Amino acid sequence: MNADQKIIRLKRGKEESLLRRHPWVFSGAIASMPDDLEEGDTVTVVDSEGNVMGTGHFQIGSIAVRILEFDSSELPEDFFYHRLESAMELRRQLGLIREDNNCYRLVHGEGDFLPGLIVDIYGDTAVMQAHSAGMHFARRAIADALTRLSGAGIRNVYYKSETTLPYKAALDPENEYLIGSFDGNLALENGLQFNIDWLKGQKTGFFVDQRENRALLEKFAKGKRVLNMFCYTGGFSVYAMRGGAVSVDSVDSSSKATMLTDANMELNFPGDTRHKTFDTDAFKFLAEMEKDAYDLIILDPPAFAKRRSAIANGLKGYRRLNTKAFEKIRSGGILFTFSCSQAITREMFRMAVFSAAVKAGRKVRILHQLSQPADHPIDIAHPEGEYLKGLVLEVE
Fold first, then answer.
1. Which of 228, 224, 190, 258 is nearest to 266 (CA)?
2. Mean pLDDT of 327-339
3. What is each CA distance from 249 to 66, 273, 392, in whole angstroms?
C-alpha cells in the first residue's frame, strides 16, 4: 500500500463476511477511517491486524463499502474493461446474442462482481444505471470500456441514474448520452420487436428479467382468453398473442404504459383486433370484471415492499391481489403471479399466494416455480441478489 491510499480498518472479528466473499462492509463493522474520506472514494479495507481484505467504493450509509476486488489494495489495470468482457463472455455462452435477440442484461451488480452497477443492452445502445457514488464517478471510464468490448457492437451509452443514486450523496446526476446519441429504440427479444423507452420509461426502459417467463407464457396461451395486469410495455401480452391467444386484455394505471403496449402490438401484429388496453387501477379492474372472463391471468406488479420495513404491507398487497385473481379466474385456468420485491423472500411470497388461494376457496397446483434469468446472475456469497420470484399455478 502507498501513502496516498485511503484505508478503512475493521473492528476485530468483522472481517468474517469478507472472508466468505460477501461484497458489503457495513458501517457498524468499521473501527476507523480517514477524516477526509468522501463519498465515492476508492478505499482499501483491512482487518484489525492490518491484513488487506480488498478494495472498493466508499459510501455514506448502512452499506459503507462495496468491494470490487478482494485480497488486493488496488484495482487491476483497466479493471472495468476486464470485468465487462467477462460479463459479455457469459452472455455469449448463454446464447443471448443472436439475430433474433439483441436485448439482455450485461451487468447485474454484485452478480457480475460490479456492485452498484446495472447495464442493459438494446441493440447497439447500452443503458447504464449507477446505484453507488463510486460507479457514478466511474461512469465515463465504464462507458469507454463498453464501446471497446469485442463483438458487442455498442455505439451509444446512455446514463440513467437520476432516480437510482443515494439521495444523501447530493450528486445531482443528469440522464444523458455519455457516448453517441439516440438513433432508434427498437430491440428484438426472441424474434419479437419492442419499442424501448430508456429516456423516460421505468428502470432502463424494459423489464428484460421476464424474458424467459414470457417465453414460457407463450406456450400456455393457445386458445386462451388472457388478462395481463400491470402490463407496462405489454411484453407478456405480445408473447400471448404470438402463442395463439383468442383475446388479450392489457391493464395498467398509466396511459403512457398502455400507449407503449399498443405501439408494440402494432409492431408485431398490425391491425390485429384480438388485443385491447385499459387505463385503470388493477385492483379496481379485478373487482369489477366478470367471473370466468379469463382463462389465463398474469400478475406482475411493481415491488410492493422495497425495504424491510414495508414487508408486512407488501405481503398484504400480494394476498389481496392474488385473492381477487383466484376468485375471478375460470375453473382450470392458469395464473402467472410474480413478486419483484427483494425484501420479500421466496417462502414469504409463496405463503402469501397460498393464503390467497385458501381465502378464495380454490384448489391450486404449482406447475412452475420461476426466477430471474441467467443474465441476472446471483453471486453465491450475496444471496440478496435474488429478487424475482414467480409461480405458475393451475386453478381448479
1. 258
2. 97
3. 43, 11, 19
List CB contacts of 170: < 8 A, sequence separation 6 or more.
none
- The arithmetic mean of pLDDT across residues 310-327, rounded, is 95
CA–CA gap between residue 224 and residue 88 (Å, rounded): 38
Strand 225-229 vs strand 42-46: parallel, antiparallel, or unpaired? unpaired
Decide: residue 361, CB within 10 A, 0-12 exposed, 13-18 middle, 19+ buried: exposed
H-type alpha helices, 149-254: 211-220, 235-242
The C-alpha cell that represents 231 in the structure block: 402490463
| 35 Cβ contact list (under 8 Å, min separation 6) | none
167 — pLDDT class (breaks 50, 70, 90): low
Write phi, then psi, for 55 (nearest 5 degrees).
-125, 140
Domain map of the chain by residue range?
7-70, 79-189, 207-395
Can you list the alpha helix ranges (DSSP code H) found in 209-310? 211-220, 235-242, 255-268, 282-288
Residue 298: predicted pLDDT: 98
- Does the domain at residues 7-70 carry the CATH identifier 2.30.130.10? yes
Q: What is the pTM of this model?
A: 0.94
